[in-house]
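Hey, I was hoping to borrow your eyes for a little while. I'm sending you its amino acid sequence along with the backbone structure tokens. Take your time with it, there's no hurry, and the full record follows here.
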Amino acid sequence: MVANCALQASFVLEEYHWVSSIVDDSSDWLVCDVGGLVGCEPDGLFASILGYGPYFEYGWIVGAMDSQATGRIYLYGSGGDYSGGCVFVYVSSDGYNWVFVSDTYVVQGVHCWVDCGVSVGSFNYVLLTAEHPYCISCLEVDCVRVEPL
């Protein structure tokens, strides 16, 4: 710049929805540290979801959103110590009637935000499971957020 200029900042409030509580889980050894999923930012705690596909044994977690959500779903996590794997994502407005959103591969040992697709319908619950019928999966999920469209 070669002269005085008037600058005006413009800020846009970004609104996110977070898993605020765990509604239910499989309550067995296929899910560890369920409470580690609750939160609004990566905090080093995580829920482990295990899937032993060849034996048709799958861990799953249902999380309640902090408010009704619609939009792009992200999870922060990675494949566990032993393998990566697919996480299958479903949403529901009542916690019973589930709508499939996506199956997304989560890379072993790389904690990052993973895009799990878009839900155009409103939902209050998100279900995460490792249900691939042919693979053994170990997933570490720290938190889930939804960005409105």
